[in-house]
Design goal:
Oligomer: heterodimer
Order of helices and strands of chain A: EEEEEEEEEEE
Distance between the termini of chain A: 36 Å
Strand content of chain B: over 45%
Radius of gyration of chain A: 13 Å
Shape of chain A: globular
Mean pLDDT of chain B: 90
Distance between the termini of chain B: 39 Å
Mean pLDDT of chain A: 94
Structural class of chain A: mainly beta
Shape of chain B: globular
Structural class of chain B: mainly beta
Number of strands of chain A: 11
Helix content of chain A: under 10%
Strand content of chain A: over 45%
Radius of gyration of chain B: 14 Å
Largest sheet of chain B: 6 strands, mixed
Number of helices of chain B: 0
Low-confidence stretches of chain B: none
Largest sheet of chain A: 7 strands, mixed
Number of helices of chain A: 0
Helix content of chain B: under 10%
């Protein structure tokens, strides 16, 4: 089954404790992206990647890092999480940057 | 970056046709218009995509006027299960970037 998976689905952590949210897709998509969703603000793009070793900032990249060492994986790294990064995070993938993106189930993060 | 504007919310009754309009005044020549549906605690799901005139698939129609500064998603004969948030998305492929701005979406509530 074609899908985008994220882990963990739920995470509670404390300020400053580094964490990684994994994202994997099995569709051989070149394009992958991370979004955060907050009440009243819709979906905002954090980072995206056009292919292996090619990443770029979205609208809200501050406080986040990403890497794309393999085509199927695109982890989101929070080096020093802060409470304002409490949010619902979605990973997505598509062919070559097309707008038809496939989204993962989401990761709900709470930073205390 | 082409930003989108949609109504915040809409109510409809089962069996009615629902039209949701999105404004995208700064749309670029190469941009496509894509609509997504999102249920609570799930990732957005692709509904339909178009470039100009009219596109129809098994779930919706998309109307795009000649100037492409707006688009209208049409959902025929909605049911309770169509209650969701609908996002209009215009891609930005200028300068080789692939940033996407989803906006805040339209919350559709279908009443019995």
């Amino acid at each position: 089954e074609a899908q985008v998976t994220q882990n963990p689905r739920y995470l509670i952590t404390v300020t400053g404790k580094k964490l990684t949210v994994t994202c994997s897709q099995n569709m051989n998509h070149e394009y992958m992206s991370w979004y955060r969703q907050d009440p009243g603000l819709g979906l905002r793009q954090i980072y995206y990647s056009m292919n292996v070793e090619v990443t770029d900032k979205g609208d809200v990249p501050e406080g986040y890092k990403v890497s794309r060492k393999e085509k199927r994986n695109f982890p989101l790294i929070l080096e020093s999480p802060s409470p304002n990064q409490t949010s619902l995070y979605f990973c997505a993938s598509s062919w070559g940057g097309e707008e038809t993106q496939y989204f993962g189930p989401g990761t709900r993060l709470l930073v205390l | 970056l082409a930003k989108t504007t949609q109504p915040i919310s809409m109510d409809s009754y089962e069996g009615q046709e629902v039209n949701i309009t999105c404004s995208h005044n700064n749309i670029a020549t190469n941009d496509y218009i894509t609509w997504y549906q999102q249920f609570p605690s799930q990732g957005p799901r692709f509904i339909i995509q178009g470039y100009k005139t009219k596109v129809t698939n098994e779930v919706a129609s998309l109307f795009i006027p000649a100037d492409r500064k707006s688009s209208t998603l049409s959902l025929p004969r909605v049911s309770l299960s169509d209650t969701a948030v609908y996002y209009c998305l215009v891609g930005d492929r200028t300068s080789g970037t692939y940033k996407y701005i989803f906006g805040t979406g339209t919350r559709l509530k279908v009443l019995a």
